[in-house]
Design a protein that fits this description.
Elements lengths: L6 E5 L4 H12 L3 E6 L2 H11 L4 E4 L5 H15 L4 E4 L14 H29 L2 E5 L12 H21 L5 E7 L1 E2 L2 H6 L3 H9 L7 E2 L1 H13 L4 E4 L4 H5 L1 H4 L2 H7 L3 H15 L5 H8 L1
Parallel strand pairs: 1-2, 1-4, 2-3, 4-5, 5-6, 6-9, 7-8
Amino acid sequence: MSLRGKVLFVTGGARGIGAAVAAEAASRGARVALVGIEPEELEARAAELGEGHIHIEADVTDLDSMRGAADRTVDELGGIDMVLANAGIATYGSVENIDPEAFKRAIDVNVTGVFYTAHVAMPQLLANRGWFGVVGSIASYAPLPGGASYNASKAGVELFTRALRGEVGWRGVTAASIHPSWIDTAMVQEAGELSSFRERRERLPWPVRATTTPERCAELIVDGAEARKDRIFIPPSARLIFWLRNLLGSRFGEAIMARESPEIVPQMDAEIAQLGRSVSARNAEINRR
């Protein structure tokens, strides 16, 4: 499927994977609607893309806001052919000690936000036999203690996408689950303020600890969209984690993943207590607006 002339609707388009995919798709001839909650960043990214692209301030957790974003994209760009449901956040801390509002916000953004995005875009995707990509994570296969909200949300959207695939695949729409390992985005960089996070990452085995640039990630996603793939692994070696998911979910696998918990989890909880927040400083500021 050539992207030339296609309209791509990207949530979380202000930075990271969303911005990189928008740039890559635009370079291949797509017209892009950048959607998100950081208006200045969205405006800057749209300006970098040039003429023929738009930016829309909208919150994926607000159905009316997302419906308005989809309607505006159709009005200004003529339709929606492809969607990247990319908006997502991460939280820190154990189930016992995480800020409950931060946990809820992660589920709202990472799961309900994907549903709202699919819900408002689906009429256009069905009409155009389009492609709907969801940015999940290998965290749905390899959960880390201290990241329950993120793990749960990414496992949730993986099964959501698989269910959606069964609903619309026979009607010509490709629903694709995207499974990145570590991508060098603001979300991953900001989590590095926790020494417990940095130490856990350094101890992970290959390919779980592999880091990919947003630009390379975007190339793989757009290649997958053009080929209408329904599963995309980033880097490609992350497919190994998919194959090993039953082992990782066994008692043996869970024991391996949790063997450093007595050290790492108390350290992480102490760090978030000192910070006074369970999210990055940037997300804490956005939530206060």
